[in-house]
Write the structure tokens for this entry.
Amino acid sequence: MTSGDPARPPRRVDRAGVVIAALLAGLAAVLVLDARGLSSTAMYGMGPEAMPVVVASGLGLLAIGNLIDALRGHLPARESADPVPVLLILAGLALLIAIIGFGGGFILATSALFVTTSAAFGRRAILVDSIIALVMSTLIYLAFDRLLTLSLPAGPLERLL
């Protein structure tokens, strides 16, 4: 089929895609501006401001690609809006913050986020997901704590390790 084919309806500009592209570009700009405020302690090479600029560059490329597809009308059609998955993920993020804030530690907090996110994606095996989350969070905690010697929020489970 050619683009002038009468059987194919002409594509319209996807306004939501343009808004998403603008938000991505805005987030990239905020990261670059924030990175400029970091003081570099490195005498040579890269300092702490390098990584936000790298992430901002990636976001900028995503914004450009999204904008091009939105203007051409090539973005995939969206499904109907179901607020339940978004609310589950927001609840998981709130649990993560609350558990860490009240001293529950990284393992429990990350596990709560994992379980709520898997439920948001339609999985209903909460017990199995909880076990998987606890094992993965423990392994991640041990990798950061023991191998990389980076501290993560400690709680009762972390103190047992």
